[in-house]
Specification:
It is a single chain. The chain is of the alpha/beta class. The chain folds into three domains: 333 residues, TIM Barrel (Alpha-Beta Barrel), CATH 3.20.20.80; 193 residues, Rossmann fold (3-Layer(aba) Sandwich), CATH 3.40.50.880; 28 residues, no CATH class. The protein contains 18 helices and 28 strands. The strands form seven sheets. Strands 5-4-3-2-1-11-8-7-6 form a nine-stranded parallel beta sheet. 53% of the residues are buried. Beta-D-galactopyranose binds next to loops.
Length: 660
C-alpha cells in the first residue's frame, strides 16, 4: 500500500528576510521536526521582476536549503498576486467590482481570472517554475495559486459568462425560462443583452446571480486546471492541489473542485475562540467528505491555520497554551495528512504583520515555537510506533495509520454512522436577499453538526454527490435548492433503510430557483407525508414552546401531516416535527428552528432508533472523542481534568484509548 507524505510545517516567506535569518529558520524547523514548508505563495514580483525576466536563484537556495535539512517543500505558484508591472501593462486584467469600479494594485488577488493577459502571464510563470523545479528533490506537493475565490464583473467576464450560459442552457429561450425572465420584463431577445449581475436599482435576478457564481467557480477551476496541467506536463508524478477557503462567501464549489486535485487541502480560520473545537471538527469532517466523494478515499490536508490566535469579531483572541497541539491532533485524527500553519515567521512589515506565527516577533524563545516543537516530538514519537518524521521523511514518505498516528476512522474514510448534507451551491441560493427571512445556511448546517459532535456521534459532512448507503442517519438541513437527482437519491436512501432527517426550508426550489409548487417541500413532500402551506418566520427574540417543552426561535411553518405521525406540535396543535415510515427506512421532518438542547434530544432518539451510537456515551461537555483506525482519541478542551474509561486526562490534554 503506498504511504502518503505527512506534512507538519507552515507558510514560509524567506524572501522577506536576510540569509542569516533564513538559516536560523531552517535550523529551527529541523529542531521542531517540521517536514514541509510552503514557499513561493506571493513571490511573483521576486521571481519575474520584469516581463519575461526570471530570477530563480534565491528560490534555488531556499529549496536546496530545505532539502539539505530533510524538509520538503510545498511549492506554490504565485498567481494570486500579480506584480505591479503587470497591472500597468494590462489595466483591463484588473478586477472590476459589481458597481463598475476597476480595482487597482496595492493588495493581493487583484486580477480578472477571465482576462486573457492574466491567464497568459500566469501560464508563463507557472510553466517556467514547473520546468525549473519538476525534478527538485525537495518538492513534495505543488500548491497552485492561493485560496481561489475572487469576484469580477468586467467585460471579459461578461463575454465568458455568455459562452458559459450557452453551454449550460443551449438556447436563449431556455435561459429566459430558467431565469424566469418574464418577471420584471427581463426577457432577452439577443445574447448580447445578457450581462453579469452588476449593480442594479433594486433586487437583481436571483437565478442570474446563482448562475454567475457557478460560472465564476468554473472560470477559476479552468484557471486552476490550466496550471495543474502545465505542472503535470513536466512533472507527471507531481502531486498538485490548491488550498480551499471555507466559508460561503467565495464563489467556489469545492465539492466539484475536489475531483481535480490530488489531495483535498483546506485552510481553516475559526470565527470564535470557544467555538474553535466544534468549528474545526466541522471543517475537518467537511474536507474528508469532499475527499471521499471525489474518489480520494477520505484523506485531506489542513494547509493553513493560525498558530496562536483566533480572530473573533475583529479581535485577535490568544489561543491558550496546549490548544495548538490539541487542534492539530484533532484534524489529524479526522483524516488530515498533517497540520500546516500560516505562518512560520511573523512579517516585520506589511498588511499581515500582526498575524500570529510559529516564530513571532519576539523570536524562537516564544511559547508558540516551543509548542510546535513539542507537537513535532509527539508526532515523531507517536507512542513509539512511528519513525521520526525527519528520518522517515528522507527515506520514504511519513506513513500514517499503521504507524500509530491517528488515521481517520469515520465513514467515507471508513465507519461513520451519521452524515450531515452540505451543499455550497445551495448555500449561495439560501444567502440571496429575497428570501422570507435572512437565513444563515452554513450556520444551520454547522448547528446540526455541532449537536451531533457534542453528543459524541461519529459524523461525516457529505456533499450531494456522496455515497449515502451505509449511513444509519442522514440529516439534510435547509436544503432549499434540491435537484431532481438529489431528491431521488434521498428517496432511495430512505427506502433502502436509512433514517432521513429533513429540516425546514428544504426541497423548495429546483436548480434554477423555481419553486416546486403545490405545497412545500415540493421535492420531498410525498416521502415525508406532509404539506407545508405557509412559512412563518419569527421576529428576533421571539420564542415558541412546543408541546414537548422544546424551544423554537427563528423559523416556524404551518403544515399538515396527512401521511405522517406527529412527534411535536406548536402551541395551537399544528404539527411541528413529524415521522413517516418509508420503505425500509424513516423520514423525519423538522419544520422549525429547535434550540441546541432540543436538537440533541431529537437526534438522540432518532439515532437510537437507527442503531447509531456515540463513540463513548456520556462524555462530559468539552471532551471530544474521535474514532480512528488505531483507537479512540480523546481531546479535553476543558480547564479541568476528567476521568474517562478509567484514564485520567489532564486539562487541555489529548490521549488515545486503544481499541477494545
Ligand atoms: C489565508 C491566506 C493567507 C493569509 C492568512 C491569514 O486566508 O491564504 O495567505 O492571508 O489567510 O489568516
Amino acid at each position: 500500500m503506498p504511504t502518503k507524505p505527512f506534512f507538519l510545517g507552515a507558510d514560509w516567506n524567506p524572501e522577506q528576510w536576510p540569509e542569516q535569518v533564513r538559516a536560523e529558520d531552517l535550523a529551527l524547523m529541523r529542531e521542531a521536526r517540521v517536514t514541509a514548508a510552503t514557499v513561493g505563495v506571493f513571490s511573483w514580483s521576486r521571481l519575474e521582476p520584469s516581463p519575461g525576466v526570471y530570477e530563480f536563484g534565491w528560490l534555488d537556495r531556499v529549496l536546496d536549503g530545505l532539502h539539505d535539512n530533510g524538509i520538503g517543500a510545498v511549492l506554490a505558484t504565485p498567481t494570486a498576486s500579480p506584480p505591479p508591472w503587470f497591472t500597468l501593462a494590462h489595466p483591463d486584467a484588473l478586477a472590476m467590482r459589481r458597481d463598475g469600479v476597476r480595482l487597482v494594485h496595492g493588495s493581493r488577488d487583484t486580477y480578472c481570472v477571465n482576462a486573457p493577459a492574466y491567464r497568459a502571464a500566469s501560464l508563463r510563470i507557472v510553466s517556467a517554475l514547473a520546468e525549473r523545479y519538476a525534478r527538485h528533490p525537495a518538492v513534495r506537493l505543488w500548491h497552485v495559486h492561493n485560496e481561489y475565490g475572487t469576484w469580477c464583473f468586467c467585460d471579459h467576464c461578461g463575454r465568458a459568462f455568455r459562452s458559459w450560459l450557452r453551454e449550460r442552457h443551449g438556447t436563449l429561450d431556455a435561459l429566459n425560462d430558467a431565469w424566469t425572465a418574464d418577471f420584471w420584463s427581463q426577457r432577452h431577445t439577443d445574447w448580447a443583452q445578457v450581462l453579469p449581475p452588476r449593480a442594479t436599482q433594486y433586487l437583481g435576478n436571483p437565478t442570474q446571480e446563482l448562475d454567475y457564481r457557478r460560472f465564476l467557480s468554473d472560470s477559476m477551476l479552468s484557471a486552476y486546471t490550466e496550471q495543474r496541467d502545465a505542472i503535470k506536463a513536466v512533472a507527471p508524478d507531481g502531486q498538485v492541489t490548491t488550498n480551499f477557503v471555507l466559508g460561503g462567501w467565495v464563489p467556489v464549489d469545492h465539492a466539484r473542485w475536489s475531483r481535480e486535485v490530488d489531495l483535498v487541502a483546506i485552510d481553516h480560520y475559526p470565527s470564535t475562540l470557544d467555538g474553535t473545537p466544534a468549528e474545526s471538527a466541522f471543517a475537518a469532517d467537511t474536507a474528508r467528505g469532499w475527499s471521499a466523494a471525489a474518489g480520494h478515499g477520505g484523506p485531506w490536508l489542513l494547509m493553513e491555520h493560525a498558530p496562536a490566535h483566533v480572530t473573533e469579531h475583529g479581535v485577535q483572541r490568544r489561543k491558550p497554551p496546549g490548544m495548538l497541539a490539541r487542534i492539530a491532533l484533532g484534524h489529524i485524527a479526522r483524516g488530515s495528512q498533517g497540520a500546516m500553519y500560516f505562518q512560520w515567521r511573523a512579517s516585520a512589515g506589511g498588511a499581515e504583520q500582526w498575524h500570529s506565527a510559529i516564530v513571532p516577533h519576539t523570536g524562537p524563545t516564544a511559547r508558540t515555537y516551543h509548542e510546535l516543537r513539542a507537537l513535532g516530538e509527539t508526532l515523531a514519537a507517536s507512542e513509539g510506533r512511528a519513525p521520526s518524521c525527519r528520518s522517515a521523511y528522507k527515506k520514504a514518505p511519513f506513513p500514517t495509520g499503521e504507524a500509530g498516528l491517528p488515521a481517520a476512522g469515520a465513514a467515507g474514510a471508513g465507519g461513520g454512522e451519521v452524515a450531515v448534507w452540505f451543499d455550497e451551491v445551495c448555500g449561495w441560493a439560501v444567502g440571496a436577499s429575497h428570501l422570507p427571512a435572512p437565513v444563515d445556511y452554513q450556520g444551520i448546517v454547522e448547528g446540526w453538526h455541532r449537536a451531533l459532535w457534542r453528543r459524541g456521534y461519529p459524523v461525516d459532512v457529505v456533499p450531494p454527490t456522496a455515497t449515502l448507503a451505509g449511513y444509519r442517519v442522514l440529516v439534510v438541513p435547509a436544503a432549499y435548492l434540491l435537484t431532481d437527482e438529489s431528491a431521488r437519491r434521498l428517496d432511495e436512501y430512505t427506502r433502502e433503510g436509512g433514517h432521513l432527517v429533513v429540516t425546514y426550508l428544504s426541497g423548495i426550489v429546483d436548480e434554477h430557483l423555481r419553486v416546486r409548487v403545490g405545497g412545500y417541500p415540493g421535492a420531498l413532500r410525498d416521502m415525508l407525508g406532509i404539506r407545508v402551506e405557509e412559512f412563518d418566520p419569527l421576529p428576533p427574540g421571539a420564542v415558541v414552546t412546543l408541546d414537548t417543552g422544546d424551544l423554537v426561535t427563528g423559523w416556524t411553518e404551518h403544515l399538515t401531516a396527512p401521511g405522517a405521525a406527529v412527534l411535536a406540535r406548536y402551541p395551537d396543535g399544528r404539527p411541528a416535527v413529524t415521522r413517516r415510515e418509508h420503505g425500509a427506512g424513516r423520514a423525519y421532518y423538522v419544520s422549525c428552528d429547535l434550540d441546541e438542547a432540543a436538537t440533541a434530544r431529537l437526534l438522540d432518539g432518532i439515532c437510537a432508533a437507527a442503531g447509531a451510537a456515540p463513540i463513548l456515551p456520556g462524555l462530559p461537555d468539552g471532551v471530544e472523542a474521535v474514532r480512528t483506525q488505531d483507537g479512540v482519541w480523546l481531546f479535553n478542551h476543558t480547564d479541568e481534568p476528567h476521568e474517562i474509561a478509567g484514564r485520567l486526562i489532564a486539562r487541555g490534554d489529548v490521549t488515545r484509548l486503544p481499541l477494545a
